[in-house]
From TrEMBL:
The protein's name in its UniProt record: Riboflavin biosynthesis protein RibD
Alphabetized Gene3D superfamilies for the sequence: Cytidine Deaminase, domain 2, Dihydrofolate Reductase, subunit A
PANTHER family: CYTOSINE DEAMINASE FAMILY MEMBER, RIBOFLAVIN BIOSYNTHESIS PROTEIN PYRD, CHLOROPLASTIC
Sites where the protein binds Zn(2+): H57, C82, C91
InterPro entries membership: CMP_dCMP_dom, Cytidine_deaminase-like, DHFR-like_dom_sf, Eubact_RibD, RibDG_C
UniProt binding sites for NADP(+): A160, T195, G291, P292, R293, L294, T295, S296, A297
Pathway: Cofactor biosynthesis; riboflavin biosynthesis; 5-amino-6-(D-ribitylamino)uracil from GTP: step 3/4; Cofactor biosynthesis; riboflavin biosynthesis; 5-amino-6-(D-ribitylamino)uracil from GTP: step 2/4
Keyword Iron belongs to the record: no
Organism in which the protein naturally occurs: Devosia litorisediminis
Residues annotated as domain CMP/dCMP-type deaminase: 6-130
Top-level taxon: Bacteria
């Protein structure tokens, strides 16, 4: 197994950039990308991303598009090619049959059906393999990794706060657009019952052309339950909705709304069990748009992988952002998340915090 070259890294970077806009569209399969490159001319021959819904896989699509030109080429793929029969044939076998001479892989697949087996199949056929720990590929497949390794989704919490650390509901502008973009790249968006009652919103994507990518909308019920008087539950929107509730709590919802029952305490669902229930449904990337109480509970339970903290004066303010004393940013840092960057858009500031690997 050879080392990653500077050219390899550039092509893997390009593969990640190509795949990123498709996050949230590939169902319960990882959103991977494959590029087939002429190694002498360093020219792109074909490219593909995991098909909508999860199948076919990108390697199969790219190889079909490349045809005979795949022979002798280099394949760059963000995730280790599969080597098991499922609803599609093994991608590793297709790569061998196509005559690809070299495969550069962004990150190994932890799925026990594939882990290292894809690499071994390629190497056994005499194909040169480079297995990189390519940071952008790792980030791209964070949801798949969490799902396979910890049996829960990758959890991104979003919260908008005012300069004095009050919760804000952004009405428009960059903050609102950023939230919609995150929704479009998630498999599900979760809110708590209190937020559902207070806002009574649809959780639909408002960005032009992206409404169809509105993810599964999930409400975490409290001890008092939920009913169809909420527009999110009883109103017709055409978007999928689910409720997570403790086993004894009364839920009044139409048959179109799925109710997931989990263990809990005093009518409140256990958070780890709730995330496991979503993972069982194939949810890999979960966006949480919760209020202070649920946000703090997730942080204190160590269940937050990424936090997007928006500071903006544009929107309706409510109570303090943190249910404990002190600013929300301090609570985020106390729970082991590290600030990894920020963006400024006029009067709006977005800070990213992530849990170290």
């Amino acid at each position: 197994m050879t080392q990653l070259s500077a050219q390899d890294e550039r092509w893997l970077d390009a593969a990640v950039r190509y795949a990123t806009p498709f996050l949230g569209t590939t169902g319960d399969n990882p959103c991977a990308a494959a590029l087939i490159v002429d190694p002498h001319k360093q020219a792109l021959i074909a490219r593909a991303v995991t098909a909508r819904g999860g199948r076919p896989h990108p390697e199969a699509i790219a190889l079909e598009n490349a045809g005979f030109d795949a022979a002798g080429a280099t394949l760059y793929v963000t995730l280790e090619p599969c080597h098991h029969w499922g609803r599609t044939p093994p991608c590793a076998d297709a790569i061998v049959r196509a005559g690809v001479m070299r495969v550069v892989i962004g990150v190994a697949d932890p799925d026990p059906r594939t882990a290292q087996a894809g690499v071994e199949r390629l190497e056994s056929a005499g194909i040169e393999v480079v297995l990189a720990e390519h940071a952008p590929s790792v980030a791209l497949h964070a949801g798949h990794m969490r799902h396979r390794v910890k049996a829960r989704p990758y959890v991104t919490v979003m919260m908008a706060v005012s300069p004095d650390d009050k919760v804000v509901t952004p009405a428009s502008g960059p903050a609102r657009d950023w939230l919609d973009l995150q929704r479009s790249r998630s498999n599900a968006v979760l809110i708590g019952a209190a937020t559902a009652r207070h806002l009574d919103q649809q959780l639909a994507i408002a960005l032009p052309g992206l409404a169809s990518r509105t993810p599964l909308r999930v409400v975490l019920s409290g001890a008092e339950g939920l009913d169809r008087s909420l527009n999110l539950i009883g109103g017709f929107s055409g978007y999928r909705t689910a409720i997570i509730a403790e086993t004894t709590v009364s839920i009044d919802a139409p048959v179109s709304v799925e109710v997931l029952r989990v263990k809990g305490t005093k009518g409140r669902p256990d958070l780890s069990a709730s995330l496991a229930a979503l993972a069982d449904k194939g949810i890999q990337n979960l966006l949480v748009e919760s209020g202070p109480r649920l946000t703090s509970a997730l942080l204190l339970a160590g269940l937050v992988d990424c936090f997007g903290l928006i500071t903006t004066a544009a929107g309706d303010t409510a109570g303090p952002a943190a249910s404990s004393t002190g600013p929300m940013a301090d609570l985020i840092r106390e729970q082991g998340l590290v600030e990894t960057g920020q963006q400024a858009h006029g009067a709006h500031t977005l800070k990213f915090f992530r849990r170290p690997a």
